Amino acid sequence: MDFYLGVKLLHILSATLLFGTGLGTAFFMYRAYRSENVEAMKVTTENVVLADWVFTTPAIVVQILSGVWLTQRLGISYNSVWFVTVIGLFCLVGACWTPVVWIQIKVRNLIRQNRPINEYKSLMSAWIALGIPAFLSVLVLFVLMVYRPWTQSIIFAN
Ligand code: HEM
User: How many CB atoms lie within 10 A of CB 86?
Assistant: First the structure.
């Protein structure tokens, strides 16, 4: 099997996990929160925190390593507008996702201590506010991956 295509397949599979599982767990967490059913929130937050360790974290590592390797193999300059935009968006996703993981663990722990929902309402508002730019950025990344604009536009020409 062509090694390059194998890496590309891995890259696309991890992109699928990042976006698909990420959106799925966010949906269930949001629905459980809106239900104000503490038992539902308890089970959901336990599994959302677990899902981020089992699925999202490895997918992020595979995404960036396979992405840089694919970029290098395609001869796309790390100085290109495409690459700098992709890395910039990827960092934005990370900057949104990191506090989201912290919030999910905090909310899970508050629910374990049977704290009232009012104690984590503002945390959940921040969770929603961080989730929107993160998912929109991943959508833009998909577009940048398929259309691959600006790979020949060099930012800092020598
Ligand atoms: C959440 C982030 C990302 C997603 C969702 C994503 C998704 C994808 C998808 C779906 C493809 C296949 C496109 C096609 O065949 O037309 C692809 C290809 C590619 N990705 Fe990513 N990617 C992401 C991050 C990255 C990063 C961070 C880099 C670079 C550091 C990167 C570099 C590449 C390259 C070079 C290809 C082209 C491979 C080829 O066509 O042979 N990707 N990506």
Answer: 23
